Structures are given as structure tokens and as C-alpha cells.
Amino acid sequence: MLRDRNIFPFYHFVRQKPMYPYYLDFYCAAAKLAIEVDGGQHNTDEAKKYDQERTEYLNSKGIQVLRFWNSDITQNLDGVIETIKEALHQFQ
């Protein structure tokens, strides 16, 4: 979906982008936007703390992070696409 040029014609997303010391699920360098797709393993206190620290680190580098649950992708894809479009629009 993120790599579909019909949905995001002016933005290129790379999958599994290294961003030391992390790997980003999807990253658009032009918009400095990271998309993270999380499964249930991210719903523990320890994982939430790790994800928060990770997001703060990326934000400190000027990278905006959007997080979606796997279920968001499967059950509300249109809403996910709109959220990403809004973030890209704010970048412009």
C-alpha cells in the first residue's frame, strides 16, 4: 500500500530502513516520516516503554512517527491511508 504510486504518487517509502540503532518498518526520506506497523507484542508495558523511547529518539532527529496496529491495516485501511495523507500534507 505505501509503495503504491497511485495512492502516494509523490512519495517513496522504503521498507525496513536502517536508522541506527533501529530499523523502521517504512520510511519516506522526503517527508521524514516513519510508519510503524505493530502487532500484539507491542502491547506490553515493556514494549510500550521501548516504543516511546524509540519514537522520542526519532523525533529528536526530525522524523515524525506514525504507529498503526496490524488490525488497523486489515480493518480500517482507508482510515490508515487518510492519516498518512494528512501527515504528508502537513509536511508540505
How would you sum up this structure in a few lines?
With 92 residues, this protein is α+β, with helices and mostly antiparallel strands.
Features:
single chain; 92 residues; alpha+beta; Endonuclease, Chain A; four-stranded mixed β-sheet; 4 strands; 27% strand
CATH fold group: Endonuclease, Chain A
N- and C-termini, Cα separation: 21 Å
Order of helices and strands: EEEHEHH
Mean of pLDDT: 89
SSE map:
Elements: E1 14-19, E2 22-28, E3 33-38, H1 45-60, E4 64-69, H2 70-75, H3 77-91
Parallel strand pairs: 3-4
Antiparallel strand pairs: 1-2, 2-3
How would you describe the overall organization of this protein?
The protein has 92 residues and is α+β, with helices and mostly antiparallel strands. It has a single domain (14-91), classed as VSR Endonuclease (Endonuclease, Chain A, 3-Layer(aba) Sandwich), CATH 3.40.960.10. It contains three helices and four strands. A hairpin with a 4-residue loop joins β2 and β3 (33-38). It starts with 13 loop residues before the first strand and ends with a helix.
